[in-house]
Write a structure and sequence with these properties.
The complex is a heterodimer. By secondary structure, chain A is mostly helical. Chain A has helices at 2-28, 34-39, 45-54, 61-75, 88-123, 128-142, 145-159, 183-189, 193-230, 233-240, 245-281, 287-296, 300-328. Chain A has 2 domains: 2-75, no CATH class; 94-333, Orthogonal Bundle (MetI-like fold), CATH 1.10.3720. Chain B has helices at 10-14, 22-32, 34-55, 88-124, 126-141, 144-155, 159-186, 189-196, 201-209, 214-237, 249-256, 265-292. The longest helix of chain B is centred in the middle third of the chain and has 37 residues, at 88-124. Classes of the chains: A mainly alpha, B mainly alpha.
Chain lengths: 334, 301
C-alpha cells in the first residue's frame, strides 16, 4: 500500500515534469513576439530589446525553462500578463474562486440527482421511464454544452424571465470584499440577504448548464454499473435470504458506486472544458473567461500558467480517485 | 478497455453459429441492434446531405443579401436566414461535410501517429516501449480540450490547426489501445506457431497480429468521431477554429449567439446539427461495441 502510493508519487513527479516541459515548449512557439507585445505598440527597437533581456527571452530555451521553473517553485511566480500587466498568480487568485464556486454548485446539483436517476432506471430497466431516461442521457452527452446554455437562456431568461442571462451579481450591488471568494458564502457571512438572492439567481443558469452535461454521464454510469452488480451472485443470495428489495439495493449500490466515482473524477477533465465554454457564454468572471481572453490575445504567460494549473489539478484528482478505491472497496489491495 | 477481447481466440469471436461468412454475421447483428441501426441510418442521411451539398443547396451558402436578413423559418428558408441574409439550411448542409472532414482528419492524425507507435511499443517492448508509454502518460495527463487549446494557441487559430491539435492530443489513446492488443495477441498459440514455421517479424505482424487488432480499433474510432466533432466545434465556438465566412457548425453558433433573443434559429439549428451527428456516432460506437464484443452484448447503456 505505502509502496504503491510511493511508486505512484514518483511517476506523478515524472509526468508533472514532462507536462511542464511540453507547456513551456508550446508557449515558446507562439507566433507573436512576447517582448514586442509587452513593450507596447509604440516601443522602439531598443525598448523591445530591453524587455527581451528583462524577460530572459534572449537566453537559450533550456535556460529560459530553468528560470521559469525556479520562479514557480521558489517564488510562486507564474509570470506577468501582457494584457493587464498584473502578475498571473494574482489574476488566478482573483478569478479561480468564481470558477470553483460554479463547479461546486453544479456538482451539488448533479451528483445526487444523477445517482438517483441512474438507480431508478436500473431498477426499472426495460420499462418506458427507463428508455426515456436513457434517451435523455444520450441527448445530454451529444448536445454541445453551448447549445444547452443557449436553450436555457432562451427558456429561463427570454421566455420566463426567471433568471438573468449572465454575470455574477446584479448591477445594483457592489461586490463585497472577498472573504472566501465564494459569493454565495460571502454574502451570507456579511448577512446581506438580498445580495445572496441576487448571487443565487445569477449562478442558477450556468450551474444548471454544467449540471446537465454531467448528469447524463453520471446517470449512464450508475445505471450500467448497478445493473451489473444486481446480477451478481451475492445479490441473488441476499434476495433468496428474503431481504427486502430496498436492503438489497443498499448492498448493491455501495459496490456499484466505484465506477461512478471514477467517472465523476474523470468528468473533471470535461468539466474544465465545460467551465471554459459556460463562463464564456454567461460572462462569468472566472478563470475560463480569463483563459479565453488570454488565448485570443496571445498572452502567453497566463496561457501557460492556466494549462499547467488545470493539468496539475487534473492529475491530482485522478490520483485521489485511485486512492478513493481503497476506501470504497476493501477487496482492492495495491 | 477491450483488452480482454484478445483472450477470446479471434476465430470464435467472429464466427457466427450459423457458419455464415463473418461479414454477413456482422451485418446481421448490426441490423438486430436498435442503437446501431439508428446510428448508421442517421449517418447515412447526414452523409447524403454532405454529398448533396457538393451538388446543390437550396441557396448559395455564402451570398450576402441584407434585404433578406433575419427571416424566420419558412417554406423558402426552412431554417430561416442569418444576420447577412444567408440561408441557414444551405450553410448547415455545407457544414455537414466540414464536420465529416473534421472527424476524418482528427482520427487519421491520431491513429496515424498512435497506431504505429502502439504496435512498435507492444511488439518490440523494452526501452522503446518504456519511452513511448511514458510520453503517452504525459499527453494523457492533460485534459484533451485544454491541450488542444494550448496547441492551437501556439500554432495560431484556424480550423486546420484545431484539427491538427486534437489529432496530436489524442495519439496516446490509440497507442495505448494497440499496445494492449498487440501484447495479448503476441502471446497466442497461433503466433508461436507462425514463428515456429519460420515467419519473420514483418509477416507475423502483418498477417497474424494486426488483423486481430481491427475490431477494438474500429470501436474506438467510431466512439471518438463524435467527440472530435464536439471538441472542434467547441474550439471554434471560443474563436480557436473556423474563421468567417466558414459555415462550420460551432462557428455558426458562436456568430449567431448574439442574435439568440431576436432570431433563435440562427444559432440553434447548427447546434442541433452538431447534436444529431454526435449522437449518431455515439449510437454507432455503442452498437459496434455490442456487435464486435459478444461478452458485452446486452449490457450497453
Amino acid at each position: 500500500m505505502t509502496l504503491y502510493v510511493a511508486r505512484r508519487l514518483v511517476s506523478l513527479g515524472f509526468v508533472l515534469l514532462g507536462m511542464s516541459v511540453l507547456t513551456f515548449t508550446l508557449s515558446r512557439v507562439i507566433p507573436a513576439d512576447p517582448a514586442a507585445a509587452a513593450a507596447g505598440f509604440h516601443a522602439t527597437a531598443e525598448q523591445v530589446a530591453q524587455y527581451r533581456r528583462e524577460m530572459g527571452l534572449d537566453q537559450p530555451l533550456h535556460a529560459q525553462y530553468l528560470r521559469y521553473m525556479t520562479g514557480i517553485v521558489l517564488h510562486g511566480d507564474l509570470g506577468r500578463s501582457i494584457l493587464n500587466q498584473r502578475p498571473v498568480v494574482e489574476d488566478i487568485a482573483t478569478f479561480l474562486p468564481a470558477s470553483l464556486e460554479l463547479a461546486m454548485v453544479s456538482l451539488i446539483l448533479c451528483v445526487p440527482l444523477g445517482i438517483g436517476l441512474g438507480t431508478y432506471t436500473a431498477v426499472r430497466a426495460g420499462r418506458f421511464s427507463d428508455a426515456a431516461t436513457r434517451g435523455f442521457a444520450v441527448l445530454g452527452v451529444s448536445m454541445p454544452i453551448f447549445i444547452v446554455a443557449l436553450l436555457l437562456q432562451l427558456v429561463f431568461y427570454k421566455a420566463l424571465r426567471w433568471f438573468p442571462s449572465g454575470g455574477r451579481l446584479g448591477s445594483e450591488f457592489a461586490p463585497p470584499e472577498a472573504i472566501t471568494g465564494f459569493l454565495l458564502v460571502d454574502t451570507l457571512l456579511r448577512g446581506s440577504w438580498p445580495m445572496f438572492v441576487s448571487a443565487a439567481h445569477h449562478i442558477a443558469l450556468p450551474a444548471a448548464t454544467l449540471a446537465v452535461a454531467n448528469l447524463a454521464v453520471i446517470t449512464r454510469m450508475t445505471r450500467s454499473s448497478l445493473l451489473e452488480v444486481l446480477s451478481a451472485d451475492y445479490v441473488r443470495t441476499a434476495r433468496a435470504k428474503g431481504l427486502s428489495e430496498s436492503r438489497v439495493l443498499r448492498h448493491a449500490l455501495k459496490n456499484s458506486l466505484i465506477p461512478v466515482v471514477t467517472v465523476i473524477g474523470l468528468q473533471f477533465a470535461s468539466m474544465i472544458a465545460y467551465v471554459f465554454l459556460v463562463e464564456h457564454i454567461f460572462s462569468w468572471p472566472g478563470i475560463g473567461s480569463y483563459a479565453v481572453r488570454a488565448i485570443v490575445g496571445l498572452d502567453f504567460q497566463p496561457i501557460m500558467a492556466i494549462t499547467l494549473l488545470f493539468s496539475v489539478i487534473y492529475v491530482a484528482v485522478n490520483f485521489a480517485v485511485d486512492l478513493s478505491y481503497l476506501a470504497l472497496d476493501p477487496r482492492i489491495r495495491y | 478497455m477491450p483488452d480482454h477481447l484478445a483472450a477470446v481466440p479471434p476465430q470464435s469471436r467472429w464466427m457466427p453459429r450459423q457458419a455464415a461468412g463473418p461479414g454477413r454475421a456482422f451485418v446481421h447483428r448490426m441490423r438486430r441492434n436498435g442503437g446501431a441501426l439508428l446510428g448508421v441510418t442517421l449517418l447515412a442521411i447526414l452523409g447524403a446531405v454532405a454529398v448533396l451539398s457538393w451538388v446543390a443547396t437550396p441557396a448559395d451558402p455564402y451570398t450576402i443579401a441584407v434585404e433578406r436578413r433575419f427571416q424566420g423559418p419558412s417554406a423558402a428558408h426552412p431554417f430561416g436566414t442569418d444576420d447577412l441574409g444567408r440561408d441557414v439550411l444551405s450553410r448547415v448542409m455545407v457544414g455537414t461535410r466540414i464536420s465529416f472532414g473534421v472527424a476524418s482528419f482528427v482520427l487519421a492524425i491520431a491513429s496515424g501517429l498512435g497506431v504505429p507507435l502502439g504496435v512498435l511499443s507492444g511488439y518490440r517492448g523494452g526501452w522503446l516501449d518504456e519511452i513511448i508509454m511514458r510520453a503517452s502518460d504525459i499527453f494523457l495527463a492533460f485534459p484533451s480540450f485544454l491541450l488542444a487549446m494550448a496547441i492551437v494557441a501556439a500554432l495560431g487559430s484556424s480550423l486546420t490547426n484545431a484539427v491538427l491539435a486534437l489529432g496530436i492530443a489524442w495519439w496516446p489513446r490509440y497507442a495505448r489501445l494497440l499496445r494492449g492488443q498487440v501484447l495479448s495477441v503476441k502471446q497466442s498459440l497461433y503466433v508461436d506457431a507462425a514463428r515456429a514455421v519460420g515467419a519473420r517479424d514483418n509477416r507475423v505482424l502483418a498477417r497474424h497480429i494486426l488483423p486481430n487488432c481491427g475490431a477494438p480499433l474500429l470501436v474506438q474510432l467510431a466512439t471518438d468521431a463524435g467527440n472530435a466533432i464536439l471538441i472542434t466545434a467547441s474550439l471554434s465556438f471560443v474563436g480557436l477554429g473556423a474563421k468567417p465566412p466558414s459555415p462550420e457548425w460551432g462557428f455558426m453558433v458562436a456568430q449567431g449567439r448574439q442574435f439568440l433573443l431576436t432570431a433563435w434559429w440562427v444559432p440553434i439549428f447548427p447546434g442541433l446539427a452538431i447534436a444529431t451527428m454526435v449522437a449518431a456516432f455515439l449510437f454507432m460506437g455503442d452498437g459496434l461495441r455490442d456487435v464486435l464484443d459478444p461478452r458485452l452484448r446486452g449490457s450497453s447503456t
